[in-house]
Write a structure and sequence with these properties.
Chain lengths: 734, 129, 255
């Protein structure tokens, strides 16, 4: 041990003596061992500011001779084309004005090479270089050689019996290098994408009952000349299992199993899938919570029956660990209010902890669409039986400007302009303003949505709209101005009820003299004040099978609460969609029925149904009652309308990266019923006449937007209907 | 349409509660038998409360607390259980809450700045990446 | 190739660049002044001017509300010149960069924690510097803001009749945040919540503490009304659902 009267520092240029001494941490006169002196040396080195530190212990003075790292003057990256400077600069931890250190520069070089690996350039190399400058400063240059891009040319499968190569390729995210190779970057060969694809394939088969499915190997062959890969997935499907017996058991004293019947939707004979199992567990645990029994966990016991390929399931209800949620802490919400996120939790602080509920709440928070990142995880609280739920979010801009265009032979070119804010003032409210205009119509709408009216699970919507049509396809102009407040709320898992009120002023003007007398008498402006309700059922809300969805809505509006019109309007609609033939073919069915019963007075053409969306293959206002005795041969629309359409879409056998699919459809429906049938020079036929149309469609997914070509032929119609045999629509948003 | 039912909080089951006896059990033995409480009185050691409630929501109407159970374990100074009190939703008083709020110390951002501070970049269809 | 958009100061002396930067600062051109101060540090890192330029750079970036840059400049100053007398100011600037970002109480509290930690470093490491007092003041304000966050969550649960959850939040304010401006309200909310649960003794205890410490406050009057059943609430709240929608959806109030 020895002590030194004075401690001095030499060799430092920018760093001050006092700084080195504070790092060294030795006071003059303090008794120090050689070990402590060495520790001081390490501490000085540890500051990362010095290239080397030497110790000179004189009789009474201790001197630290230091050599500082140079300061970085400027950093540049050369030879990078594929990844631009901004992306790469962001990866570097070396910074101008900070001290240069070879270890940090080496780590930066590796960070750049990793970025190139991710972009599929395996041959990239990066070397850091130093250019000395005056005043002990250096310029740091990263020299990059990128190497060629390696792409996946074709994917093929060995061992797949149940699903076609095309179907599997569709499931995989790596598309073959196709028509739009330069545009689309997804098909570059990335190592972790292959691992991801193995997982996608496994999930694809496992969720269709192939419990033993395995990817044996993925063999890439490298094509020398075109630097692309041929990828072959070698798979073993195993057998497809169905569900055998399904039972319920428990070891919890006094738990009455009868409480849980009806909660199990999984049935014998269904195809086994992990998702079905998971859903049953969720339903059982949720039923336990509803019955006020806490901490019940449903553990599935699966016993295989290999002879008749079934899995017998027993759900064992056990009492899980008694843990509570102590606190829910939310961070990162710089604009969104805490209550908007907190209200997505079905539990409150102090409730029993259920991991499934936390996962579902995380999904609901992500579904808000306000955040790029929304991590919800639980950590131990102030006692072993306590948990604190941490919610960390990163916000994304929720205001957006939409510009769009669509074109169809029927309506011509249509432009859409929309300004929307989905998280107004951070309160989760939505404010939209949109104008869409076509050749002969304009439709502008202002919408305000409050998702939690009065703090309840009630959605309040306020609509203000203005619609106008010009002469183009009819011989009169209409303008409608109205506002429509409504509230809607869940009344069951899949069902929602909406209550609405509408006040609108609808004006028919400039009716040409050659038009039907009926329309001429309907000219003028009338106000409508109507109360309405709608029950809406949608299987998507909790449906398990991703391929099948069905929905139903029953809507009624009662006009006559003030205003000048007095009618009851009933609208019933239903839709069903599923996929068949190993999900290659999509089937959809739609039904819509509308009835307008005027209690007093008569309906007007602006109120009546004029064919939009009921049956395809007709010009705008092309079907339904028509005053053939008038010069303009006007379509009058009808008080009643119904339409059924059955459609199938299927691949056309072309390589699917062209994005072309075919479809056929059959539409049947009619529009009929008028209050006044006396036309200009004779009666108007407003009876019920069926219209039937068959059609074929070509869908083409292009980067500009989805294109659709419809070819139709009416196999049953009225002679006065106006048919359109071809329609072409494209819609894009930019 | 039937109401949507939700249960919150936790009260230990009867079989465990019956094991807690006045005069003999201490805070530790109570925690042993029925677990630590989630609510305590102002003086944390004098009173432990276990609260569980059921609420029903009918359509658009405000949720209504239909059932609530409060189990209070009161301790005397030497730490043994002085009394066990059980309350239900009838014992609660109807309280009109004061709407006033202690205003936040950091000035609230102006309404206009809040409105336009959040309009992000247009969501152009970025079909290249 | 080293792109050199900025006017190249290679052949200027550090003092000339420093003066130019100071001139930009006085004319309110904060962004340019910050950049020019940065040039002094880059071109002459070992000159005496570099040290002063670094602190001025942090200052300029701060008032330009570029908190990221201001923090990194302040941090560089603390790394290189920890024993210097301006280090206190650098640490204070660092704390301000978080403090000025504390937003409306309803929102992010992560930043408030960082502000509190940085302010505590100023108070502990440089207690007798001229910035210690205003750091203490800002520390209290940030602390008060944190209590406001707890209150806001407590009121959220109280408004939705989750009395047990709200009690825990208000007790956190009473126990951990006694010195803040929210304590009287927290005590009153405890009176409300305990009464709603039927725990009258607890409500009276809370009311007593409120009366003892905050005799003249409006909160005490409200509690007095609830506990004794006499007198009227100071401002009866509009009860119709329409005024409820206006207050909550339009004004963003909690009740």
């Amino acid at each position: 041990q020895s002590s030194f009267g004075a401690i001095r520092v030499e060799g430092n240029q920018r760093i001050e003596d006092s700084t080195v001494l504070t790092y060294a941490g030795i006071e003059p006169g303090q008794r120090v061992t050689t070990g402590q002196i060495n520790d001081a040396k390490q501490r000085i080195l540890g500051s990362g500011l010095f290239e080397s530190v030497d110790i000179q212990a004189g009789r009474n003075t201790l001197t630290f001779v230091v050599a500082e790292f140079p300061t970085i003057n400027q950093i540049s990256i050369e030879g990078n084309r594929r990844l631009n400077d901004d992306i790469l600069q962001a990866l570097l931890s070396s910074q101008p004005r900070r001290v240069y250190s070879p270890t940090i520069a080496g780590a930066d070089a590796r960070a750049i090479t990793d970025a190139y690996f991710q972009a599929g350039r395996f041959a990239a190399t990066v070397t850091p270089k130093i250019i000395p400058r005056s005043q002990n400063r250096v310029d740091l240059v990263f020299e990059v050689t990128e190497g060629a891009v390696v792409e996946v040319e074709r994917i093929s499968f060995v061992g797949n019996r149940s699903y076609s190569d095309r179907r599997l390729r569709q499931a995989l995210s790596t598309k073959q290098a196709g028509l739009f190779r330069q545009l689309v970057r997804r098909d570059t060969y990335i190592d972790d994408r292959i691992q991801f694809d193995r997982q996608v394939l496994t999930d694809f088969y496992r969720s269709r009952g192939f419990v033993d499915f395995r990817v044996l190997s993925v063999t890439p062959e490298f094509s020398r000349e075109r630097d692309a890969f041929f990828l072959t997935f070698n798979v073993e499907e195993g057998q497809k299992f169905k569900i055998g017996t399904v039972d319920l058991a428990t070891d919890v004293p006094g738990l009455d199993l009868a409480l849980f019947d009806g909660a199990i939707k999984i049935r014998q004979g269904q195809t086994y899938s992990p998702a079905r199992l998971d859903d049953t567990i969720a339903r059982l645990e949720r039923r336990a919570i509803e019955e006020g029994i806490d901490f019940i966990r449903a553990d599935p016991v699966v016993d295989r029956d290999d002879t008749n390929l079934t899995l017998n399931l027993t759900f064992n209800l056990t009492r899980g660990p008694r843990i509570f949620v102590e606190r829910i802490d939310i961070e990162g919400n710089s604009t969104t209010l805490d209550r908007v996120i907190r209200s997505q939790f079905r539990i409150v602080e102090g409730d029993p902890f259920n991991p499934r509920e936390i996962r579902e709440s995380a999904e609901r928070i992500r579904a808000l669409g306000f955040f790029t990142v929304a991590d919800v995880n639980a950590r131990e609280g102030t006692a072993p039986d306590r948990v604190i739920v941490d919610v960390n979010v990163e916000e994304q801009p929720t205001g957006s400007l939409q510009l769009g265009a669509n074109f169809s032979l029927e309506d011509g070119v249509g432009l859409v302009f929309g300004l929307s804010e989905r998280n107004f003032l951070g309160r989760g409210q939505q404010l939209d303003f949109s104008i869409s205009g076509g050749v002969d119509n304009v439709d502008s709408r202002l919408r305000f949505v409050e998702p939690a009216l009065l703090g309840r699970n009630v959605t309040g919507v306020f609509d203000l709209y203005y619609e106008a049509t010009q002469q183009f396809s009819a011989f009169f102009n209409t303008t409608s101005l109205g506002f429509e407040p409504s509230i809607s709320f869940p009344i069951s898992d899949n069902g929602r009820l909406e209550l609405n009120y509408r006040l609108s002023d609808d004006d028919i003007s400039d009716v040409s003299d050659d038009s039907s007398i009926i329309i001429q008498n309907e000219a003028g402006a009338l106000t409508t004040s109507a109360l309405g309700y709608a029950y809406n059922f949608n299987s998507r809300r909790t449906s398990l099978d991703p391929n099948t969805r069905y929905g139903f809505e029953f809507r009624q509006n009662f006009a006559g609460l003030g205003g000048q019109t007095n009618y009851v309007e009933t609208i019933v609609s239903a839709d069903y969609g599923t996929k068949v033939f190993n999900e290659d073919i999509g089937l959809t069915a739609n039904f819509i029925g509308q009835a307008l019963n005027f209690v007093e007075g008569s309906s007007r053409v602006i109120d009546r149904y004029r064919g939009g969306g009921t049956v395809r293959g007709f010009k705008r206002n092309g079907l339904g009652p028509r005053d053939t005795t008038a010069i303009n041969d006007d379509a009058l629309g009808g008080n009643f309308a119904f339409g059924v359409s059955l459609e199938a879409d299927f691949p056309l056998g072309l390589p699917e990266e062209y994005g072309i699919r075919g479809g056929v459809f059959y539409d049947v429906g009619s529009i009929w019923g008028l209050d006044i049938t006396q036309g200009t020079n004779g009666p108007v036929d407003d009876d019920f006449h069926l219209r039937q149309v068959i059609g074929a469609t070509v869908f083409w997914e292009t980067p500009i937007g989805p294109l659709r070509f419809d070819f139709t032929r009416a196999i049953e119609k009225e002679d006065y209907d106006e048919v359109r045999n071809f329609n072409f629509t494209v819609s894009t948003r930019f | 349409c039937q109401p949507i039912v939700r249960n919150h909080g936790y009260v230990p089951p009867e079989d465990q509660l019956s094991e807690v006896s006045v005069g003999r059990d201490t805070r530790d033995s109570v925690a042993e038998k029925i677990g630590l409480p989630l609510n305590k009185g102002i003086d944390g050691d004098r009173a432990w409360y276990y609260v569980a409630s059921t609420r029903e929501t009918f359509g658009a109407r405000a949720p209504k607390v239909v059932e609530r159970e409060v189990v209070a374990i009161l301790f005397n100074d030497n730490g043994t259980v002085r009394n066990i009190v059980r309350l239900d939703e009838q014992d609660g008083q109807v309280v009109t809450l004061t709407a006033r709020v202690t205003n936040p110390s950091v000035a609230d951002r102006g309404l206009l700045r809040q409105i336009f501070g959040n309009v992000g970049s247009p969501t152009a269809g970025d079909f290249l990446e | 190739c080293v792109d050199n958009r900025e006017p190249s100061f290679e052949n200027f002396s550090p003092k000339e660049i420093y003066d130019r930067a100071e001139y930009e600062l006085e004319t309110g051109n904060l962004e340019d002044s910050a950049r020019y101060f940065g040039e002094v540090e880059r071109l002459y890192p070992y000159s005496e001017w570099a040290k002063r330029a670094l602190i001025m750079q942090a200052y300029a970036f701060h008032w330009d509300r570029n908190y990221e840059e201001s923090r990194s400049a302040a941090q560089r100053y603390i790394d290189f010149y920890p024993a210097d007398e301006d280090a206190a100011y650098a640490q204070y600037l660092l704390a301000l960069s978080y403090y000025d970002q504390i937003d409306d109480v309803g929102r992010d509290q992560g930043i408030t924690f960082q502000a509190l930690q940085a302010l505590r470093t100023v108070i502990e490491r440089y207690p007798d510097s001229e910035y210690a007092d205003s750091a203490i003041l800002k520390f209290d304000l940030a602390f008060d803001h944190l209590a406001g966050k707890e209150m806001e969550i407590g009121r959220y649960y109280l408004g939705k009749l989750y009395y047990a959850a709200s009690i825990n939040r208000f007790r956190v304010v009473v126990e951990d945040f006694q010195t803040t401006s929210h304590t009287p309200e927290a005590l009153h909310r405890l009176v409300e919540a305990y009464l709603a649960l039927g725990l009258v003794e607890e409500a009276q205890t809370a009311g007593a503490i409120l009366g003892y410490n905050y005799q003249g406050s409006e909160w005490y009057n409200d509690s007095y009304v609830l506990l004794t059943g006499q007198g009227l609430l100071l401002e009866p709240v509009g009860s119709s659902w329409l005024s409820g929608i206006y207050r909550q959806s339009i004004q963003g109030k909690w009740l």
